[in-house]
Amino acid sequence: MTGWATFLGVIALLASNRLLLTLLGDGSKRVFFWSVQLLNFLTACALIVWGLPGVPEGLGIINYFVAGVFLLHVVENNGARMKALEKRIAMAGEEADHRRVDLLEKVRAAKAADDEERPDLPEEATEDAVPSQSTSSSEESPTG
What we know:
By secondary structure, this protein is mostly helical. It has one domain (2-117). It contains 4 helices and no strands. It has helices at residues 2-23, 30-49, 61-117, 137-140. The longest helix has 57 residues, at 61-117. The protein is rod-shaped. The mean pLDDT is 78.
C-alpha cells in the first residue's frame, strides 16, 4: 500500500505543477506557488536519499531520473513566475504612462481655461523677450 500511495503522491505533485503553470498568469497565488516549489524540492531530496519504493537496487538510476524531473519543475516554475512578474510590471508601466498622459492633458486644459479667464495678465517672459546682457571681457575693456 505504501508503494501505491507514494506513486499516487508523485502523480498528484506532477499534476499540481501543471496547475501551477496555468495559475501563474494571475500572480496572486504566492502561497500555492511556494508550497508546490518546496514540495518539489523535498520530493527530489527524498527520492535521492530513499528512492521510490519497489524499485530494484540495480535500477536505482530511476530514482535519480525522477528526482531530476522534480528539480526541473522547480527551475521551470521559477522561470514561468519570472515571466509572469515581468509581464505584470510591463503592464503596470504602460498603465502608469497612460495615467501620466491623462494627467498632463488635464493640467494643460486647466491652464488653458485659466488663461482664457484672465486675459489681462501679461504673458510670462521668455528668453527671447529678455534682452541679453553679455558681460564678456571684450565689451568691458576700452579699445582705443
